[in-house]
Amino acid sequence: MRRLALSVLLALTQASSAWAATEASSPAIKHLVQEAIAQHSSSVLVMRDGKVLAQYRDPALKADGINMMSASKSVVALGIGLLVTDGKIKSLDQPVSDFYPEWKQGQKAAITLRMLMNHTSGLQNVPYAPAEIYPAPDFIQLALAAELSDPPGTKFSYNNKAMNLLSGIIEKASGKPMDTFLDERLFKPMGMTHSGWVEYDKAGHPQAMTGWTADAADAARIGQLVLDEGRWQGRQLISPSFMREMTAEGSPLSPMCGLLWWRVSSYVHMTMVPDLVNVLTSHGMDPGMVALLAPLQGKSFGSDAEFAKAFADATGAQMGAVRIALSQHKLRSSDLAKVDRGPIVAYKADGYLGQFIVVVPATRTVAVRQIESPAKDVDPWPWGFENFADEVVKLGTK
Questions:
Q1: Which of 260, 285, 305 is the last residue of a domain?
Q2: pLDDT tens digits for range 263-308
Q3: Residue 262: phi, psi to the nearest 5?
Q4: Is residue 13 part of a domain?
Q5: Residues with Cβ < 8 Å from 158, sequence gap 6 or more?
């Protein structure tokens, strides 16, 4: 920890000339950027009504763009929105079998585009992508062949495998590969100069679960498009009705998830159930994993970030395995904790390592945080900057 504290102090000293703020006297702006630097951020950009409030770029960052990881899903959602606006997709409730007729039989016939986008398709799923997705040569065929773990529309399960079907659907609806379509219909019309796709399966399909690379300015353009309900510099690219639907509650099964955009509440109070150990044991969890989670029993947390840190501290190197086990044993968040949330105040695209695009409608604020893979000798926390969205909300009124 002393090594980390010294490295943070050194970074703040070296980076003092690498960031600028138009509201330099604002303690909230200073705190946000300094916290971002302390958490090893590669770039930060905060804008209000299209004007820069603060920006930071790590002097060591050489790349023009950073892989936005799962925040790429939020851009894929905009691709679906373009096709709905064009009339090439009838509606979000159109069956996937219209694009893949092999699903016209059995329960899969009930799966819609909306279910892919709100993670309620019911497709068999292991959240940890390297476990079964990356070894597959064709991610779309992998999803098409997957069995159902649950009846469609009955359970929320964050599903990278199902997500990749949207790449094929965009290609079938537009007549072009998803990366080409997004480049022609979104990136170029919005003047993006450092946006593109870098993740493909072995069959050549652009992945929909990840792979969009952008610099902070281009990522902020996406946030501005969401803020202005699909309008960009006077031109309506995507219908406002789709944009509102995209950021609304995607399903009662997971109110904080829209359609591939996450919803941020004004406050969160979370208390782990007092019989957590019994719940985990009754679902067949490995005793060793139960022992790791036992210290969380009955504990309360004042934010998602606070809980995320406690979960990471408790599980350590086993964090990924524990998350997979919780999913495989069909344990829902409601089984593990009681949660009270305030009204929705922001929306965010969210990716691995802490890639964020945050949109705060009330203050007309858009903020981006990006990070390259941290050095191996950097402690695994807090480079995720889990509370970035909360800090952006705190920047104050317009």
A1: 260
A2: 999 998 999 999 999 999 999 999 999 999 999 999 999 888 888 8
A3: -95, 150
A4: yes
A5: 119, 125, 127
| Amino acid found at 223 | G
Regarding whether 359 and 302 lie in a shared domain, the answer is no
- State residue 381's pLDDT score: 52
- Shared domain check, 119 and 225: yes
The domain of 49 spans: 2-63+343-393
Residue 398 lies in a domain: no
The total of structural domains in the chain comes to 3
Q: Decide which of 260, 281, 310 is a domain's last residue.
A: 260
Residue 319 has a pLDDT of: 82
Q: What is the 3-state secondary structure (H, E, C) of 161-212?
A: HHHCHHHHHHHHHHCCCHHHHHHHHHHCCCCCCCCEECCECCCCCECCCCCE
For residues 204 and 249, give the distance between their C-alpha atoms in angstroms, rounded to a whole number: 33
Q: Are strands 365-370 and 231-232 parallel, antiparallel or unpaired?
A: unpaired
Which band of pLDDT confidence, cut at 50, 70 and 90, is reported for residue 1?
A: very low
pLDDT digits (tens, 9 = 90+) for 47-58: 999 899 999 999
Instruction: State the CB neighbour count (10 A cutoff) for residue 219.
Output: 31
CATH number at residue 78: 3.40.710.10
For 313-372, what is each residue's pLDDT tens digit?
A: 899 888 878 888 887 787 877 789 998 989 999 999 999 889 999 999 999 999 999 999
Residues 348 and 335 in one domain: no
- Average pLDDT score over the chain: 89
The radius of gyration of the chain's CA atoms, rounded to the nearest angstrom, is 21
Partnered with residue 356 across adjacent β-strands are 350, 369
Same domain, 327 and 353: no
- 241: its two tokens: 């009705």
Structure tokens at 1: 């920890």
**Both structure tokens of 183:** 């480049």
Q: Taking a C-beta distance cutoff of 8 angstroms, is the pair 388, 369 a contact?
A: yes
Choose among 334, 313, 312: nearest CA to 323: 312
Checking phi first, is residue 106 left (phi over 0); if not, alpha (psi -120 to 50) or beta? Answer: left
pTM: 0.88
Same domain, 105 and 9: no
**Would you give the end-to-end CA distance of the chain in angstroms?**
38
